[in-house]
Amino acid sequence: MQHCDALIVPRWCVPVVPAGVVLEGHAVAVSEGRIDAILPLEQAQARYQPSALIERPDHVLMPGLVNAHTHAAMTLFRGLADDMHLEAWLRQHIWPAERRWVSAELVRDGTELAIAEMLRGGTTCFGDQYFFPEIVAQAATDLSMRAVVATPVADFKSSWAGSAAEYLQKGTDLVHDPYAEHPLITTAFAPHSTFAMADESFAALRVLADQLDLRVQIHLHESAAEIRESLRDTGKRPFARLDHAGLVNRSLLAVHAVHLDDEEVDRLAAAGVSMAHCPKSNLKLANGVAPVAKYRSAGINVALGTDGAASNNMLDMFSEMQTAALLGKTAADDATAVSAQDALDMATMGGARALRLDRSIGSIEQGKLADLVCVDFDHFNTRPVYDVVSQLVYATASTQVSDAWVGGRHQLENGRLTQIDGHELVARADEWRDRIAASDKHVQEVQ
Ligand SMILES: [Zn+2]
C-alpha cells in the first residue's frame, strides 16, 4: 500500500482537462500538496493508505476557481457608494475614501476579509492589484492563499508611492525579496490605466517587465469615455498607446477590454494577450458588454474576474461564471454562445493561463498543485442532476462550496474555515465601516 495525505472521494469529479469530462466513482489522491492520481475508487482503495479519507457523497470535486482580477482590500469599501455613474462613484466617493483611508492596516484587514470570502466561495487563487502589495502578499501568505500580487504603477501620488519611478522601484523590491521562488505568491506589475500613465512611465515599465520577465496587467478600454478622452488628450486610443510602448505581448493581461474594434481584437489574439472579463463590474457601472464569444473565437484567452468589491459587490466566482455565460449569449445574440463549459473553462484554466500558472493550477491533473474545491449538490436548487457542469454554472450558489484546498492544505472543511477566525474579521470590518462612513458623510457634505 502506498501512503497519501488525503484521498478525496466525491460523487462526481469535473477535472476541466480533458474538456467536457465528468467522472463518477473516482477518487483523487493528494500527497505533499500535489495531485498524485485520479483513479477509479476500487483502484484507489487497493493502492492507497490515506492519512485522511474525505468522503463527499453528494458533492462535485472541481479545480479551485481563479479570480483573475480583483482589488481585494476594497472589500472594506463594499456598499459605500452604489447606483451612480462611474465618474461620480470614483471622484466623490472611492478616490476620497482611498486618499483618506488606504494604509497598510486597511489593506491587511480588507485583504484578509476578501480571502475569507473567496475561500468560502470556492476561489483558491486571486490576481490582485492594489496599493501596499507587500501587505497583500503577506496577508495571503499568512492565510495560506495563492495570489498573484501586482504592484500598482501610476503617475499619481498615493499613500504608498509618490511617482511612477517609486512605484516601479517598490515593485522591483517585492519581486526580489522575498517572493522570487515562493510556493504561494507570484508578482506582476499593474499600471492602473493608460490615463494614469505618461508614455515615459510606460517605457520605464516595459524595460523592467522585460528584464524581470513579469506579467503586466492594466484596466484597458473599460468604458467608451476612457477611449474618447484618450483620443481627445493624446490623439490615440488607449490600446494604441500601449502597443506603441511595446507592451502588447504574451505578458499582457488586458482587464475589461469591453470596447475593442476588429483590428484590436486581431492584434490581441496574434500577440497572445489574455483578457480578464469582469462582467458584473461592467454591468453595475454600465460600462457596456464585452463580446466574449467573439474574443474567444478569435483565439484570445479569456479569464474571469470579480473586480473589486466596491464595483461588484461580491467576490463570488460562481455568480461571475453565471453572469459571463448569460451576458455572453446576449452580446452574441446567440443562445449557444458562451456555454456552461466555456464559463467553467474561463473561471479555471482561463484564469490560470492569464496569470501564467497553467502548469500548476486550473485543472485536476496528475502532478498539478492540489487547489481543489467540493460543491455540495444536496440542495433543492441543484436537484435533479442531468448535467453536472450546467448545474455548477447555472444553478449553484457559492454557499454550497463545502471544502477548499490550497496546495493540499484543507482551508475550508465542511463549510468551516480552518485557519481563519471569521468573527474577528467581521468585527474588524465593522470597525472600519464606522470610521469610513463618518468620513464619507463628511465628503458628501463639503461638496
Ligand atoms: Zn479593476
Quick tags:
447 residues; alpha/beta; Urease, subunit C, domain 1; TIM Barrel; 2 domains; 9-stranded mixed sheet; 8-stranded parallel sheet; 17 strands; 40% helix; 24% strand; binds zinc ion
DSSP strand count: 17
CATH fold label of the largest domain: TIM Barrel
CATH superfamily of the largest domain: Metal-dependent hydrolases
Structural class: alpha/beta
Distance between the termini: 72 Å
What's the CATH architecture name of the largest domain?
A: Alpha-Beta Barrel
Taking Cα atoms only, what radius of gyration do you get, to the nearest Å? 21 Å
Bound molecules: zinc ion
Q: What integer is the average pLDDT?
A: 95
Helical residue percent band: 40-55%
Low-confidence stretches: none
Shape: globular
Number of domains: 2
Give the arrangement of secondary structure elements.
Layout: E1 2-13, E2 23-24, E3 26-31, E4 34-40, H1 41-47, E5 48-63, E6 65-70, H2 86-101, H3 104-120, E7 123-129, H4 133-142, E8 146-153, H5 164-176, E9 185-191, H6 199-212, E10 215-220, H7 224-234, H8 238-244, E11 252-256, H9 262-271, E12 274-277, H10 279-284, H11 292-298, E13 301-304, H12 317-332, H13 340-354, E14 372-376, H14 388-394, E15 401-406, E16 409-413, E17 416-417, H15 422-446
Parallel strand pairs: 1-5, 6-7, 7-8, 8-9, 9-10, 10-11, 11-12, 12-13
Antiparallel strand pairs: 1-2, 1-3, 3-4, 5-14, 14-15, 15-16, 16-17
Helix pairs in contact: 2-15, 3-4, 3-15, 5-6, 12-13, 13-14
Zinc ion is lined by residues 69, 71, 219, 255, 307-308.
